[in-house]
Protein 1
Amino acid sequence: MSGPLDVRLLTALGARVAPLFEKAFGFETVGDLLAHYPRRYASRGELTPLDSLRVGDTVAVVAEVRSIQSRPMRNRSGKLTEVLITDGTANLHLTFFNPKAAYALKPGMRAIFAGKVGVYRGTRQLAHPVYEEFPEGLDADSPEARMWAEAPVPIYAATSSLDGTKIRGVIHGQLDVLPELEDPIPADVREPRGLLDYRRALELVHRPRADADWREAQETLRFHEALVLQASLLRQRARFRARRATTRAPGKASAEFDAVLAARGMRLTDDQVAVGAAIEADLASGIPMNRLVQGEVGSGKTLVALRAMLVVADSGGQAALLAPTEVLAGQHLRSIVQALGPDLAARLRPTLITGQLPAADRRRALLAAASGGASIVVGTHALLGDQVQFADLGLVVIDEQHRFGVEQRETLRLKGETSTAGDGGSPHVLVLTATPIPRTVAMTVFGDLDVSTISQLPAGRSPITSHVVGLTEHPGWIVRVWERLAEELEQGRQGFVVCPAIEVAAGKETLEESGAPAEEAEEGSPPPAAVLSVVEELRRHPRLSAYRIEVLHGRMSAEEKDAVMRAFAAGDIHVLVATTVIEVGVDVPNASTMVVLDADRFGIAQLHQLRGRVGRGSVPGLCLFVTNADPVSIARERVDAVAATTDGFELAQADLDLRREGDVLGESQSGGRSSLKLLRVSRDAKVIEDARAVAEKILESDPDLAAHPALRDAIERRLDETERAFLGKS
């Protein structure tokens, strides 16, 4: 692969400029640079004389820089830069709160400044305007100047070392010497859709003459991005399915387990039966299964996975279940042993491997896995260590897939191909998630996996009532929160209280992972609720002091966490004050109440998962989301959305809509730098579906893309090394 877009930036820009782009953005080639699309476009608009500016108008003015001064800000750290400009008849003040944004300005420079006219202490000003040096030799009153002034101004993501003007200039310089390009989108696909050719789209997205130009260019580049990504995923799916896997079929253990379930009066839901049948067909096919099972909290995904493990065990193989936390791994082991019953559990020897096992227990567990004595091995990241070996690893189950990176999943899969007694075939892979995924996200992120959905809840699950406790509007309601918790305890039930922090000391927070954007915490806002403070408060509460209240958080040792969870499950602890360490998998049927403090600090998926810890038995669930967020903020909108419905799929779409845009793959999926550039799964569902259909048709007749070299090269170019690893290993 070698073309104009593959030229190294060092060659194209030289040793002085190229390292700036590599350090700031990781760009290595001209293709990387030209795929740095503008994040938005500013309109210069009509050029306005300074003496006719009106407060509130968005304007563009041509003026000369008269003076530049910096001074410390009064109420916050940092400096304020004030610039005085003039057009010869009047003056105007410019204010920059980030001095680096104004560093390119020099006294005597003539430039165009665009922004909204404000007023400060009776003086008109532009705060943080967009600016660009006025072309040399151009008369401000000429038609050419007006054409230039009315063209949209591309605004790029910039850094302190590379401002937008510099980036724009470098990109324009590369466009000036860029030859014609082979188009990754075939003409018979491009023309009926009215798309531009690739070279023209790059030109107009970076150098539009009118708003219609960049809109048309973006439409083409969105389809280009969708086609490249879908073709990548479909090619990888075909390659994965070309591998060999051991055929697995149900036998004695599977039949015994079904009999155990029947004896307990447990009936699988229709969804569980359908997904289980699809998994059995995968296991029997001789082709490695690569299936994602998504399901509501408490929908019975783990039971379906356990039945798959038994099918593998029936043919002499082993199954490994990788869980994100020691609390969840321990709970999975106990649940599996209980579900199997004493006879099956004794034969299959479910075994736990975690990082904090005592040395003697660890040696026994490692031997059971390596010898094949343990048919089911449950563990955390410790399963990935070199010391952990398997006799015949036939099935890898990943629980809560979003907690694991690509390399971790691949490490476990390779242990199956190198099993000591196996046949060298690939193990089957089953990925579980309780975070429902909108269809377009599944198609975009997991397009190389078969996706199954369990949406029905098993019989016996109780309804959950959710309420938002807005302390901004009703500060006194926190009193009622603790009274309500006490009322549940008085009925013999248990409760959770979740905090975003472990402790807050000396102005510093010890936070556990949170799904809410960090930038939303407002300056001067109160510190987050912390486990170690809240537990003391509750122990002093008149109506709660008689109950046993304990803590659970990520700084505790594995033994401490396990002991607390066992005591809570046994009913010896009445209230558990915890961080999100209890977000997934914790199953205590008698727990009826979930209080989430500072709920606005968590993401939609986390709040939905936390709520799923209650209402797991015959006891009705109550979830109270306590928040100090402004009622009209995005953070509060998230909390309100979760309280309004228990439908995880509806919430997943709401989450997507509220985030609006961003990196769908994320580091946990790609293993490194990766992003969607123009494509947005919340907006571009039709584009994604259309591109997938086109990719399927192309690959059906040309699986190696021999007749589509430009598309093949675009796939290689779009994916950096870590992204290719993601596509090769997920």
Protein 2
Amino acid sequence: MSRRRLRFHLPAVATGLRSAWQAGYGLADLRQDIMAGLTVGTVAVPLSMALAIATGVPPQHGLYTAIVAGAIIALTGGSRFNVSGPTAAFVVILFPIVQQFGLGGLLIASMMAGVILIMFGLTGMGRLIQFVPYPVVLGFTAGIAVVIAVLQIPDFLGLQTGELGEHFIANLAIIFHSLPSLDPLELGVGIFALAVMLYWPRLNLPVPAPLIGLMVGALAAYLLNLWLGGGSIDTIASRFSWEINGETGNGIPPVAPVLMAPWHLPGPDGTPLDVNFALIRALIGPAFAIAMLGAIESLLCAVVADGLTRTRHDPDAELLGQGLGNLVAPLFGGITATAAIARTATNIRSGARSPLAAVVHALVVLLTMIALAGVLGLVPMAALAALLFIIAWNMSEARHFVRTLRSAPFDDVAILATCFGLTVIFDMVLAVGVGIALAAALFIRRMALLTQSDRVDTRRDSSLATLPDGVAVYNIDGPLFFGAAEKALSSLRIADPTIKTLIIDMHDVPSMDVTGIMALETLLDDMARDNVGVIVVGLKARMILKLRRAGIRKVPGQRLYCQQMGQAIRVARRWQG
């Protein structure tokens, strides 16, 4: 007997880059990639800083992610248009990791997730991600959006809350009790920046709204601080400081990312981590959650890109590229990265032709960090919170969420609500696990309801009218698997003592698992004890082979397999004498 083994295969690396080259790549395409990369890089700078801060780490680590992971994933992945970097979806996972294990623990978990993603790619799991149901994805993304929005309230309102924790309800209580500390100036800057970012797209100008919003917010904060003669408005420079090679400063370091050992970075108590088996074991769960979400989001992003460009991505190569990016980026201070749908869509709309556009985007972030670090330090925290409010709103897909609640079947609504609630109150890992389990259970239930077994009225069927008395015909329609076999076959247990031959029409049974085989064997044994002969009609050859391997063979005068109903009728007549 042959055994199925887990097979490793080697997906082609850099299939996105290769497909662009094979399509014919010239100087005109390179110019398009450069222009698209400039646009996406401009968008990525404020987003990378904001998402790093939302995660609980200094803003430069978000920039490091866009620079290192963005370039590596683009060059080694399986999509021509994906742009990778820090994303909002990860905030709900990474924030608790930072609270428990510090920056060093987060980077180690990201590297472990990179290894898991590489294993996903090598084992061909890229195509399995498509089986995550839509209500599960919509539920946890909407839940993540709510968590992100709540985490930004203190900075937007200028509240004195101290450091928030990892539990949503507790954070809500902290924010509520801190409302008396609201700072009108911080709130004013946040509202001003938010209004500009919301209104700017209406002008149809090529400069991205996030960049303009943060610029005017920085200008407003600078003028207010200058007028007040102090640092009343909290900015990146006033909130964060850095130390590299003995040099110190505030805000963002004006240097390129350098090689660093993540385990030498601070843990939750500010001291370097002690890397041991206990730490690795504690980080396995978070690393797997990071890998699962990274795989889902990157492949969903690639599917969206394919729909916009009529191209095809290589899912296994994309997972391999995501794994390499997350394995290497933490060595340069980068946090978890995955493909970002908003940046990818911007990349496509800007005319990108190949993954080189994403590489240019990484170079733009690098040059901006080196040349404009001082300017970036002037960005107020309230303006960054306003930007994250917009990100959270776009991520929530509120219209799709409400429409699904109104129009979807009750089972799907229950899955959506469950995933949303679990993500907000507990965490995304539990939400996705429970959501997929519920979806699988409901799918089994639906499939079980499709499998039917009905007694055929021989008096109304002209082909069966010549059957003698004492012969009953049943038709089974649908797969016989563990969710349906017992229900379908139980109706065949006839109580009529005049029935001596049972014909079971199984032409419409496409598959049968071991539960179906055992249920059929039990039925046949019961019929044999009652001296009822059974003729199975139309069962496919591969399923007959399964039955024979299970020891269910034909017995002369008692049990027979036939391919056609006419043959079964002739046998039934002979058995009836």
